[in-house]
Amino acid sequence: MVGRTGLYAVLLANVAVVTVFFVQAGFASNTLIVLGRLTGLFGALLMAFQLLLVARLPWFDRRIGMDRLTSWHRWTGFSVLWLLLAHAVFIVFGYAQASSLDPVNQLVDLAETVEGVLRAIVALAILIVVGVVSARYARRRLAYETWHFIHLYTYVAVVLAFTHQVAAGTTFASSAAAAAYWYGVWGVALASVFIGRLVLPLWRNWRHQLRVTAVVPENDNVVSVYVTGRDLDRLPARAGQFFLWRFLTKDRWWQANPFSLSAAPDGRTLRLTAKRAGDGSAALRHLKVGTRVFAEGPYGAFTTLHRTRPDALLIAGGVGVTPIRALLEELSGHTVVIYRVATDQDAVLYDELRDLAAAKGAELHLVTGPAVPDRLAPRELARLVPDITGRDVYLCGPPPMMNAVLGSLRELGVPKPQIHFERFSLAG
User: Fold this and answer.
1) Which of these, 53, 125, 168, 286, is most buried using a 10 Å CB contact count?
2) ∠383-385-389 over CA atoms, to 5°?
3) Under a CB-based contact definition with an 8 Å cutoff, are residues 319 and 275 in contact?
4) Phi, psi (degrees; rounded to nearest 5) at 143
5) Nearest 5°: phi and psi at 259?
6) DSSP 3-state helix, strand, coil percentages of the chain (rounded to 5)?
7) 156 SS3 class
8) Which of 260, 272, 276 is nearest to 222 (CA)?
């Protein structure tokens, strides 16, 4: 909560600063140009804020969570697109109103005569393409690697937009303080991406030298991979978190997949457990011992860091049991575990859960059967866990199950700060 509130406060403070500098720069006589400049400034500010959201800085991630950061990234991205579209339309029509040119010829004239405008047009075109492929309809039909490759062009658009602002932005010329402010904003944003997306992963992987030590099939569709390396006791990983795993084989080195830790980190070994859902996860079964591993992370706020109550309820669905199993290993206090699967054969890691529950004095409920009727409806949850409103609830599973359980928790009156979940989606 502190992280989110602080981030909102920083954003609002910067909106206020940008507004002050805009007013100090003076108003144009044309209202459309005024609106164009203001929407451009707010679009630039949100674009810099967007870079912070995708930088994957550990401080943000631990307190806010990759899931929420990804959601903010999506909405901020579309807000940036609409603000910059409005900026372009207002500016073009504003200048066209003051001249004898139609809007199309006015745009061509600005591109030919004003430094930085052509770069801005290219940047806007890139953002429009990224926005189109990021829409839910298109996103579902694109392979992740294709979508991610197109998405990387956003960084080209950011650089082009920044150089346009330097060349044509009125606030840069209005005062030294305004110029210093904007250079500072962009400097912090770009440095955050450079550190979070490049420097930190390279440093950690050079330091820890990760390698596969064992590959253990759990059943026909699920496999566990054990990874070890140097100084793993200094890797700041916690139960409930995940990594982006890249196994450096000749045919898979370019592909990264997010998998949760399925055991609490012990300073010697990391374990991931994955269900076969595509080429990437299916290939894990064929990894050889000694394969080099490049891992980005740890990511996620699905940890005990945000506990508000001494007792907990862990709810897992399918292979979503992996972070739940790791959390059970770390949690103290009385814990209830509910594991929802279609059949007993789908209960991956159930034997480990049973042994852990017995060792820690936890209650374990295996709930089997088809999706309908809902076996985790409010009445069923209240029967299994009568004191549910007094516990922290950790939830991980397939999206339909998670949505249904979240509805049940709301109906039962579980306070929102006590509900912890993460969908493990990534962007940027």
Assistant:
1) 53
2) 115
3) yes
4) -65, 145
5) -130, 135
6) 60, 15, 25
7) helix
8) 276
pLDDT confidence band for 173 (50 / 70 / 90): low
The residues pairing with 336 across neighbouring beta strands, listed in sequence order, are: 313, 363
pLDDT at 48 over 60: yes
DSSP class of residue 261?
Answer: B
When the pLDDT of each residue in the chain is averaged and rounded to a whole number, the result is: 89
Confirm if 379 and 309 have CB atoms less than 8 A apart.
no
pTM of structure: 0.82
The residue among 391, 423, 367 whose CA lies nearest residue 307 is 391
Q: What are phi and psi of 384, to 5 degrees?
A: -70, -35
* pLDDT for 426 beyond 60: no
- Which among 17, 16, 15, 53 has a CA at the least distance from the CA of 181? 17
Q: Which residues of 145-155 are buried (b: 16+ CB within 10 A; e: fewer)?
A: eebeebbeebb
- According to DSSP, residue 196 is labeled I
AA identity, residue 306: H
Contact 39, 395 (CB under 8 A): no
Alpha helices for 26-152 (secondary structure H): 31-54, 58-64, 66-98, 103-113, 117-134, 136-139, 144-151
- Determine the Cα–Cα distance for residues 22 and 32; give it in Å rounded to an integer: 15
Name 194's Cβ contacts closer than 8 Å, sequence gap at least 6. none
Q: How far does CA 394 lie from the centroid of its chain? A: 18
**What is the residue-wise DSSP string for 338-400?**
EEEESSGGG-TTHHHHHHHHHHHT-EEEEEES-SSS-TTSHHHHHHH-TTGGGSEEEEES-HH
Written as one letter, the residue type at 204 is: R
Length of the chain: 428
